[in-house]
Amino acid sequence: MKIERISIRRICNPINRPYVTAFGSQSAFNSILVSLESGGLTGWGEAAPGGGPFFSPYTDETSFCIARDFIAPRILGREISSGAELQELLQGIRGNEFAKAAFDVALWDLLARQDQLPLYRRIGGSGNVARVGYTFGVLNSYDELLAGIEKVTASGYPRVKLKFCPGWELEMLAVVRAAFPALTIHIDCNSAYTLADLPLLQELDRFHLAMIEQPLRHNDLLDHAELQRRITTPICLDESITSVQEAEQAIRIGAARFINIKYGRVGGITAALQIHALCGEHGIGCWLGGMGESSLGTTVVAALATLPNVNYPSDISPAEKFYVRNLGTPVLSTDRPGTYTLREEPGLDVVPEPDALRDFTVAAVHFEAPC
Ligand SMILES: [Mg+2]
What is the residue extent of each domain of the chain? Predict the structure, then answer.
């Protein structure tokens, strides 16, 4: 299909309460939004690097600039019929996976709409239901955390993930494990530790965690492999997996037994599908994570979470957990806790609501191919 028009937007969507992790506190989620038009159809793609270079080296602003100055000119007016063809055109651009991801998702949305298939089916999903876990950030007290866990597990969530960082670590975990001895729990360290913290990390084995997510720095694959040899709890890599090649290398050296695939961080649906296939080939567990996308990007995460090798409940947050008002309409939410049911409409099944799109857009640029 010929890419006739491209729009690129920076989006800033305020959230209803500060979100605190090892990276600090945020009051809004920032993303870039791309639309591609072809043959009377519009495909939408979102990627959410955030407003600062903390979770990755990129921001919504840097992604917007790369998208505007380098990606759009390479694809405007081109005939593109697959994610692989798009990636081929973008090969000369190093890194900048979030910018590439927004285009890649928009293309897959276009392809699914053209084929009259819901996105999850167009990418090979095995059913329209994704399993969903629940994540707790750092809260004000252990009592608040315990009450929260009680509530979400009673409502049906199959596992909880706990953010884990200095000041909110072993004591917190001991309190939770004592209260919930059989619950499936994993922790997410968001790169807060190094091998110098080995004694603390070895203590985690006694809590029977499903996995430890990203204990060490994002570029410490070798150290993760070393740590995995010295602890029994499986390591799950998140921030470290920025491409298919990183996933291949992590698997080859034994740095991870699980991978948290984030489509924005790895360059889009095309790369996410390749990493999912690699995990299947090598017996590595995988699941999907979100990065603060609106309901539009969240639907992409949910579609990917229906893939056949996904063997752990994914991080798919209902929009109302974070947003006062969502970008996309309809606002999708978990129809029953612990699951996320995708609809059978063609494509992503979510498009931006015009008023919200206007209110949340910080910058925009539009391109049109000559006839
Ligand atoms: Mg993580």
Answer: 5-116+353-368, 121-341
Ligand 1 centroid, distance to 143 Cα (angstroms): 24
The pLDDT tens digits of the residues spanning 180-205 come to 999 999 999 999 999 999 999 999 99
State the DSSP H helix or E strand holding residue 142, giving kind and residue range, or none if neither: helix 142-155
Residue 258's identity, in one-letter code, is F
Helix (H) or strand (E) holding 275: helix 269-282
**DSSP of 161-183, one letter per residue?**
EEE-BTTBSHHHHHHHHHH-TT-
The model scores a pTM over 0.85:
yes
- Measured distance CA(101)–CA(316) in Å, rounded: 18
Q: How far apart are the first and last CA of the chain?
A: 14
262 in active site: yes
161 is catalytic: no
Whole-angstrom Cα Rg for the chain: 20
∠ CA 146-150-151, rounded to 5° = 120
73 Cα: distance to centroid of ligand 1 (angstroms) = 33
Q: For residues 218 and 98, what is the distance between their CA atoms, to the nearest angstrom? A: 16
**88-114 confidence digits (pLDDT tens):** 999 999 999 999 999 999 999 999 999
Assigned architecture for domain 121-341? Alpha-Beta Barrel (3.20)
Q: Determine the Cα–Cα distance for residues 177 and 170; give it in Å rounded to an integer.
A: 10
CATH of 5-116+353-368 among 3.30.390.10, 1.10.10.10, 3.90.550.50, 3.40.50.300: 3.30.390.10
